[in-house]
Amino acid sequence: MYQALYRSFRPETFDALLGQEHIVRILKNQIKNGTNAHAYMFCGTRGTGKTTTARLLAKGLNCTSEGERPCGKCEACRAIAAGSFLDVTEIDAASNNGVDDVRMLREEVNFPPVLGRTKVYIIDEAHMLSTAACNALLKTLEEPPKDTVFILATTDPGKLPATIHSRCIRLDFRRVSEKVMAERFAEIVRETGNSADPDALSLIAANADGSVRDGLSLLDRCLAAGEHISRDDVLFLLGMAGVETHMKITDCVLKKDLAGALKVFAQVLAEGKETVQFTKDWMEHLRNLLMVKVLDDPAGILNLSAENIERLRAQSAAADTEFLRGCITLLSRALSESRYAPKPRTLIELAIIRMCR
Ligand SMILES: Nc1ncnc2c1ncn2[C@@H]1O[C@H](COP(=O)(O)OP(=O)(O)OP(=O)(O)O)[C@@H](O)[C@H]1O
Ligand SMILES: [Mg+2]
Ligand SMILES: [Zn+2]
Predict the structure, then answer these.
(1) What is the pTM of this model?
(2) CATH class for domain 242-355?
(3) Does the structural domain 5-172 have CATH classification 3.20.20.70?
(4) Does the beta carbon of 127 sit less than 6 angstroms from any atom of ligand 1?
(5) Fewer CB within 10 Å of terminal CB in the chain, N or C?
């Protein structure tokens, strides 16, 4: 059976992990010196390596190699990668039994490791823990058992109570840069016996917006279509859903190119995209442009890669704050009116006409 790239290319050692050097440095050191904490909180956007790193840390704390740990080769490392190591438990807080698992954990933690040196509990999607589960976990974190490490992974640390935060070492995962991702994708394409144009891989990386998993999934879809990937292949696969479309239609509106804007809109609909969804996405793009324009440091507010923020900045240079505000208002009004309209498309077209006036 074919295994998705993002699963077959999960890093087995720290050196294979992309873009998280600040975290790798800390964890490598702690593993080497035995100075690891009892509880960690891994935060950051989806697909940036939180679960992967949690497993790497679990391996590092149980690896039997004399050299660099984790080695990825010893019995412990391999068993952890396969999910069959008794002392490493993964709990998915998003699933129903997350709560039961946390309760069970409270009793179980008092026993020493069976096979390895350290028991590791990886609590994935920790922000999904119920209040009851959170409280149960808190009790355990308050009296951390010997030789036990907890790793909470979450995309949404704000949802976890301060009491949990204060007991964990927090590590923030960064979005991976396009350059680093595109370079790795080139290696993967080669290793799998395929080929790709460099600009095709850059486009995939740009659309991944910092998430390696999203990038690998897109790469996978491209490879399913053929052994060689060109930029046009990627554009075709992305369809009009890619960020390029929002850039393009906004460019038209900024230039008051009415025919151009209406054409992009028509293409979007011809590709089967829904009027309302497209309009919402486009509004989000305009809102991002506005943020980039009015904020000195928009990175904290905008959930986007540094490169995509740079692209927004370039486009926003040609845009006037008032004009952007006007466009957002026009679209938002058209959207709310379109709820009762037989043809939402017409209302959005009217809004585009007014923007271009
Ligand atoms: N920093 C990275 N370096 C290399 N590969 C990565 C990295 N981050 C993610 N990947 C790839 O994406 C896959 C999924 O990564 P992982 O499960 O660690 O992400 P995550 O941060 O836990 O995401 P989520 O928040 O959705 O759970 C990995 O198997 C790997 O192929
Ligand atoms: Mg994860
Ligand atoms: Zn090992």
Answers:
(1) 0.82
(2) mainly alpha
(3) no
(4) no
(5) N
